[in-house]
Amino acid sequence: MKRNRALSTQAHAVLAALLAAGNDWCHGYELAKQANIKSGTLYPLLIRLESQGYLEAVWQEAAETGRPPRHAYRLTATGRQLARDGLGETGAVSIKSGGGAIA
Amino acid sequence: MTLGIRRRIARTVCLMLERLLPDAQKPWAGAIEAETGLIEDDGEALAFALESLAGLLPWVLSHFLMAPFLASTSHGAAIRPRAVGFGCATAATWLGIVYMGVSGAPMRYLISNLAALLLGGLALAAFGVTVSKTPRWQGMLNLAMGCGLLLTALFGYRMDGVARWIDLGHLLLQPSFIFLPVLIVSFARASGGLSLAGVVIAATALALQPDRAMACVLAAGLAVRVATHADRYAVLAFIASLAAFIATLVQPDTLPATPYVEKVLFAAFNLHPLSGLAVLGGFALLIVPAALGGRYDKANGDIYLTFGAVWLTALIASVLGNYPTPVVGYGGSAILGYVLSLWLLPKAPSRNTGTQAKTQRQLQNAPPPDRHLNSNDSRIAVVRAAP
Fold first, then answer.
1. Is residue A45 part of a domain?
2. Does A7 sit within 8 Å of B374, measured CB to CB?
3. Which residues contact B262 (CB under 8 A, 6 or more apart)?
4. What pLDDT, in 10s, does the model give residues A28-46?
5. Residue A38: which CATH number?
6. Residue % of chain B over a pLDDT of 70
7. B384–A48: do the CB atoms touch at under 8 Å?
8. How many structural domains comprise chain A?
9. With an 8 Å Cβ cutoff, are A28 and B31 in contact?
């Protein structure tokens, strides 16, 4: 069964930022800045997107030596489709699931 | 406050987050720590770390609240039906106690229910480690329980021509509420000649009393068994239970409702909508183990379905007629029966089917719903690279 449900404006903003990045990897701090949301809102969203297969998350070695590895994100193919579907609609972003249970 | 202190606090917050988050989410604490470390401004780094902690606190709370109800398996986390069930029984008992306390029930009612819960919990723990559940042993147990019910119907404490209690001085026990749920769930696990004999004897006892509610409970539980495993034992047992139920219908049942025992739901709503909701909440909790078990342990779905049918029927009967309200109303027998019937639920998912593997991983990995995505997607995809 397909179900649609409106996303919050914060989810909308994060998806838009990730979609705009295309194949480039994004990082948490910059994403929070771009989407203009707090990190406490961003990370639960990223975790949820990643657990549902909409987001790729990898550890990247820092370019400068001595710096710790950094967690980087980009949308998967289904994530990009999700974002396009959502951003294509006016007003609210919605998620459509082929699997059934997604809201 | 100096800048150095802010940076140190930010690091401490990140470490705290790493300690608090469940294993599946720990890499995210590392991600936050890495980002925090790269922020030039100390104040901003502290704010970033603190906001992350506040945002992920629901994960932490969810982890701690669910931990007692989850068991580790080789495939991840699995629901522990008995722990869930005992948690639900405890909550439902307390909701009933709150209702009875507010409505002015005698203190001994409240103490009696609590004592039954404690006794049931101890028995559940003891049975879990000492009593065998081989089919033969279960058959003998079922036969013994059937005989116990028949003896009660023949020689038990009599009230208005109905004999369904054992008089323990200041306490009347209703063995049908203790033994029957155990017998039905046990039969769902292992039907056989001895178990069938136990069910037929129990059905006879219920027809003699007469006890429409419990006869209906027996028929409902066995109907599930027939629907899921229609072997000859199940069909014969169901026919016996149906005959017993019909026998109870044609006999007069003139027992009036006893305050705090019967018609509890309506009495609670008459008292105050909140007390009514408390009782209704207690009702719902009694079905939770069946719902969760059926959802997360599909291999044993028939056992959970039987358990759910037994208690749902008992609850419906208590609303429709003058029959005791299980667990939420006054009466230790139903509390004992509920907790003991949990003993027959599976310990953990028995086989790791594809669906189970998925749901177990869901339990371990899936974060709680957040207000931004509002999603309950059942799909899980892992595309995470290790550091």
1. yes
2. yes
3. B318, B321, B322, B323, B324, B325, B329
4. 999 999 999 999 999 999 9
5. 1.10.10.10
6. 84
7. no
8. 1
9. yes
Q: Is residue A29 part of a domain?
A: yes
CA-to-CA dists, residue B305 to A82, B44, B328, angstroms: 37, 54, 21
Verify whether the Cβ–Cβ distance A43 to B58 is below 8 Å: no
Q: Return the HEC string of chain A.
A: CCCCCECCHHHHHHHHHHHHHCCCCEEHHHHHHHHCCCHHHHHHHHHHHHHCCCEEEEEECCCCCCCCCEEEEEECHHHHHHHHHHHHCCCCCECCCCCCCCC
Residues of the domain holding A76:
9-88
In this structure, what token pair is assigned to residue B67?
């931990």
How sure is the predictor about A89, in pLDDT bands with cuts at 50, 70 and 90? low
Task: Give chain B positions within 8 Å (CB) of A76.
Answer: 381, 383
- Respond yes or no on whether the N-terminal peptide bond of residue B210 is cis (omega within 30° of 0): yes
Nearest to B387 among A27, A50, A59 (CB): A59
Could you give the count of Cα atoms lying within 13 Å of B187 in the half-sphere of its Cβ?
42
On the CB side of B286, CA atoms within 13 Å amount to 32
Q: What are the structure tokens assigned to B309, written together?
A: 């049918």
